[in-house]
Amino acid sequence: MIFLDLLFPPKTTCIICKTAIKTGYLCDKCKSTLKFIEGNRCNICGKPIDYEGTCLDCLEHGHEFKQNISPFEYDGVVKDLIGRFKYFKERELAPFFADYMADAVKKMDWPIDVIVPVPLHKIRLDERGYNQSELLARELSYRLNIFMSKALRRVRNTITQTALHKEERIENVKGAFKVTYKDTIVGKNALLVDDVLTTGATLDECAKVLKENGAKDVYVVTIATGKNM
Fold first, then answer.
1. For a surface tag, which of 126, 130, 132, 133 has the fewest beta carbons within 10 Å of its beta carbon?
2. What does the H/E/C string look like for 157-172?
């Protein structure tokens, strides 16, 4: 092994345990800890469920977007990595997540015309230094060969949704978005990109604004979601 390493030295390290690896982002051991959404999932919000069809929440309340797909459950290692990506400036995680998100979108075979990231307000953007959803959208644009448009703008600096209940989240983002590049979405099917789907309140508000301004159907891809969120 040592001789082979001398001939073919490791090119990078695992993004979780920092063990040297030759290719990719994860060593085999850490890759085995990723929690993918497998088996039944709601055919609208994409959350894991114990039966085929639509979850009770989607049946009762519905969504402005047509469907969401998330490759991962929001738990364990994936939850930690998303936190590092959003709050600790580890932008290099964008292509890692985008690989799995692009594969998930391809399997759905949606008729996507344009990719739209969920925007941050300027104040939040200045604090963080980047919009994690835009980084993901750019990576997806490259992998799916679909145009990305920053068609949405957040016009109100809403408080974080993390500690809010569903009704509070809906009220919190009401009227928070406007369309800026309308010509890029009129008559087109849009793919909204965000990091996590919880209640879907933010994504619903974005989808509603896009459709009110001429978009046809709005689909969603997120890194992760979970049934108990």
1. 126
2. CCCCCCCCCHHHHHHH
